[in-house]
């Protein structure tokens, strides 16, 4: 299994040998600090070795050094320094390189210690920061989203704030037969000011058709394919994506097989108020997000709220950068909305775990209206995505989705929702059909898929004696992604693909029958050996 975290290392200032001793001393002190913390942790390591826990060794070693060094890693990868901190201009590159080497060594040690046939869950991976080295008027961070039945929103950023918000497009490469003009805006977050964030809606477009397009009359040409107007359709689902070496692995596996649309139930960039990380994330996902629609909803890491600070509304960057079809679905907020797939054969509802959801709230009223408008005779598949899971046997984030479940679960049950996807917990878990904490053949199948590759690592501990453990069909703490292929009006197949070495290994597979089907039977599962 390869771990790839990239960073730019600083070099010694050329022609200034007087600075070398100072830099070397600081570098040495930093590395000694890390070495001391790791050495102190070796006492705990011996316990884990005695217990035969390779994962325990990795977690202890990583935790010993990660918190103190990650700030330096981030700054080195961005080519920046932290004035007034211990990560100064001179040692930061060398420190980042030492940390990278240490992590690679730990990963290698894990695989040497493990049995040849034993899957070893990876430690967190350093950030992978994607630079932009093209002219200011050239588009970057290009991503697309579906709007209505036959239109597509193109979103991109330019450093040139006067660049035109125009998209030219056509079915032949370099031959643009139509164009659309949109709008752009910027936002400020303390000393950071974004580039121009453009949005333009193109269409009407033919289904299952490849279009070539160019943004802002400058830069590269991009290619997209519109979703089909009927079944079958294939949806990729990933959560808690981030921008690490494991993220790049997940994205590579996704891009290795065809699909029609990607759904992401929150926690995109993990910028957490570091606004340049939004830019880096947009550039990282651009190869996939510019070619197929990415439909997202917010997670807790999108909030970036500053209590008491004037002018910094929650979800400021998220709402500016990832505009979703809330107007088209009658939603008052970009934090929750809905849309149709495959000509209306499937209806997808994106809920907001961090918007008001109690009975009497705007989101609750909107959800009632939206579900009431779904005709299950014409729309046999009904899917819901949200961030904080309503059912969860992992130790992480216990009970955080309970209030929302208590408020809204009845609405989903009465509408016969087929599947509910969530993220937040950095692991994979699939439940049987459930309603009100009991197995119920008319309830949704609940799936947690918060394992896209985030910087915080995996949530390793599942609770065997949890009150919902008997409802949990499969659970595993590994990075990966999922695919829902809706075959026809009655049948769909869900597969979860673990990031196993260089390949996406199918670890869980289940056939689902639409709850709109008159001949409903319980799902049939395959390949789901339990791992705790």
From TrEMBL:
Molecular-function GO term, any one: acid phosphatase activity
Keyword terms, alphabetized: Glycoprotein, Hydrolase, Membrane, Signal, Transmembrane, Transmembrane helix
Sequence intervals crossing the membrane: 21-39
Pfam family, one: Pur_ac_phosph_N
EC number: 3.1.3.2
Catalytic activity: a phosphate monoester + H2O = an alcohol + phosphate
Record-annotated Purple acid phosphatase N-terminal domain positions: 139-223
Record SUPFAM superfamilies: Metallo-dependent phosphatases, Purple acid phosphatase, N-terminal domain
Residue ranges occupied by any Purple acid phosphatase C-terminal domain in the UniProt entry: 443-508
Stored InterPro entries: Calcineurin-like_PHP, Metallo-depent_PP-like, MPP_PAP, PAPs-like, PAPs_C, PAPs_N, Purple_acid_Pase-like_N
Superkingdom of the source species: Eukaryota
Ranges of residues in domain Calcineurin-like phosphoesterase: 236-428
UniProt similarity note: Belongs to the metallophosphoesterase superfamily. Purple acid phosphatase family.
Protein name: Purple acid phosphatase
Species annotation: Hordeum vulgare subsp. vulgare (Domesticated barley)
Highest classification ranks of the organism: Eukaryota, Viridiplantae, Streptophyta, Embryophyta, Tracheophyta
């Amino acid at each position: 299994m390869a771990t790839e975290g990239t960073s730019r290392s600083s070099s010694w200032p050329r022609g200034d040998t007087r600075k070398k001793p100072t830099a070397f001393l600081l570098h040495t002190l930093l590395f000694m600090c890390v070495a001391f913390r790791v050495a102190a942790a070796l006492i705990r390591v011996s316990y884990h070795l005695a217990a035969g826990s390779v994962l325990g060794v990795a977690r202890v070693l990583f935790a010993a050094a990660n918190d103190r060094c990650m700030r330096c890693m981030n700054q080195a990868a961005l080519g920046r320094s932290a004035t007034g901190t211990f990560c100064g201009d001179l040692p930061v590159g060398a420190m980042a390189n030492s940390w990278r080497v240490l992590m690679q060594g730990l990963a290698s040690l894990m695989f040497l210690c493990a049995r040849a046939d034993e899957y070893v869950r990876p430690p967190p991976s350093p950030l992978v920061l994607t630079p932009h080295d093209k002219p200011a008027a050239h588009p970057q961070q290009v991503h697309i989203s579906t709007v209505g039945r036959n239109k597509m929103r193109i979103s991109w950023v330019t450093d040139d704030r006067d660049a035109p918000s125009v998209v030219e497009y056509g079915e032949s490469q370099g031959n643009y037969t139509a164009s659309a003009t949109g709008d752009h805006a910027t936002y400020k977050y303390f000393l950071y000011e974004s580039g121009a964030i453009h949005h333009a809606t193109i269409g009407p477009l033919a289904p299952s058709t490849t279009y070539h397009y160019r943004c802002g009359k400058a830069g590269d040409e991009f290619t997209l394919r519109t979703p089909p107007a009927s079944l079958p359709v294939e949806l990729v689902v990933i959560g808690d994506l981030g921008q690490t070496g494991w993220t790049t692995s997940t994205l590579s596996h996704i891009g290795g097989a065809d699909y029609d649309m990607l759904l992401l139930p929150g926690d995109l960039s993990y910028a957490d108020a570091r606004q340049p990380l939004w830019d880096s994330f947009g550039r990282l996902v651009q190869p996939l997000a510019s070619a197929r629609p990415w439909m997202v909803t917010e997670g807790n890491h999108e909030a970036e709220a500053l209590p008491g600070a004037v002018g910094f509304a929650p979800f400021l960057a998220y709402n500016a950068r990832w505009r979703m079809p809330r107007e088209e679905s009658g939603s008052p907020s970009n934090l929750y909305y809905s849309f149709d797939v495959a000509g209306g054969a499937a209806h997808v509802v994106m809920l907001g775990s961090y918007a008001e959801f109690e009975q009497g709230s705007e989101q609750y009223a909107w959800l009632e209206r939206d579900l009431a408008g779904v005709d299950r005779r014409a729309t046999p598949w009904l899917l819901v995505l949200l961030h904080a899971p309503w059912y969860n046997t992992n130790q992480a984030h216990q009970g955080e989705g309970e209030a929302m479940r208590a408020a809204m679960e009845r609405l989903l049950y009465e509408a016969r929702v087929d599947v509910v996807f969530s993220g937040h917990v950095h692991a994979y878990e699939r439940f049987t059909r459930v309603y009100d904490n009991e197995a119920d053949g008319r309830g949704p199948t609940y799936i947690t898929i918060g394992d896209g590759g985030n910087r915080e690592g995996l949530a390793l501990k599942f609770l065997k004696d949890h009150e919902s453990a008997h409802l949990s069909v499969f659970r595993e703490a590994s990075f990966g992604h999922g695919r829902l292929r809706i075959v026809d009006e009655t049948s769909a197949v869900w597969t979860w693909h673990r990031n196993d070495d260089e390949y996406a290994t199918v670890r869980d597979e289940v056939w689902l029958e639409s709850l709109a089907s008159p001949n409903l039977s319980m799902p049939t599962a395959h390949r789901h050996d339990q791992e705790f």
